[in-house]
Here is the input.
Amino acid sequence: MNLPTVQLDSFETALLQELREEVAAREAARAALATPRPTGLVTAPSAPRSRGRLRWAMATLAAAVVAMAAWIAMPTPVTAPAYAVTTTPEGTVKVTIDRLEDAAGLQRALREHGISAVVDYLPGGMVCRDEGRYAQASSDHRGLLSTAIEGSHLTFSIPRNWLAPSETLVISLSTSPPVADGPAAFAMGFSVAEGAVGQCDPIPFPQVVVETDH
Amino acid sequence: MSHSSNPIAFIAVDPDALEAFYREHLPTVRRFVARRVADPELAADLTADIFLSAIDAAPGYDPSRGTPSAWLCGIARHVVASHHRGAARAHRALTREAGRRPLQADAIARAQERIDAERESRRMYAAMAGLPAGQRAVLELVALDGLSVTEAAAVLGISPVTSRVRLHRARQSLGSALAQDATTNTAPLTEVVQ
Here is the structure.
């Protein structure tokens, strides 16, 4: 690889190394998330790290979990819409979330765009209890739902016919657990349920357990 | 957007791609920061924040809306503006935990050289503080960072016509004195809008 020749000082050298580790850790986290877990908690990066925004990686759920991420909330004008839902000519439904406000409105908007969804916004450090809330879909949805952070917005796209008629997309978004030095952050989790979805029973944010894949 | 249509997307998943991007665009970020802040340690923090934010935003990069360099300037501007609002400490913990503060002598010296060289640009940047946000955004990107009016428009998500109008109004608001003085390392404001 021919890298551009720029002389780095000690800070820039250290920053580069840290950024490389950050990217590698994120990729490891994504790989971990793509591996179904038989039960309960914890998808976490296998790379040795625990700092930065990934500390809010949301310990979650089970085989039907298809995506999760954490992003930093940037301040935006409060007059801007909290969310937007659009459908592309190809039938992909794109969701942009600016602030965690009006979960019921987002849920309605998704249904208007043909996506059966249940959306819950929770306060800091809380997630919905999944046990007993719904039956996880048996079909494999991994790798199809794409998420991204665009500026201060969180976006995700749902391909056409991604959900079977009997399936519901379960979305939970939460502010992070309180952290000293206080960046505002959120974590999100997606699951696909088969059949009805019960009410959200908020429980404390689970601890992330770092696992090593062998 | 697929990685094939978005070359920047790889910086979020491939450390080697990230390194190439970092080495290519670090000079741009150095200048960008030095034109706005005079404290080497704050400059270091902002540099880290800018590249972390770029990694975050990489999947959303749209090549049709400008070059990677222009895109990065848009991100950098957001990071610096957020800092000035006192709301962008998000990455700071990462910086401290990595033991990169305090800076070592070589990093301070080189940062100070850049900061000294951009004194006039910072004066212009400070003078922009009273402008309406929309005008200031265009003026910063064009007059301080050397983007074209069209590139600035793409970065800011506005039309080139709107960009040009805002630039014109910004120049009028700032007055002729600054425009006539601001010649170091940047285009005079009177030339920028012509």
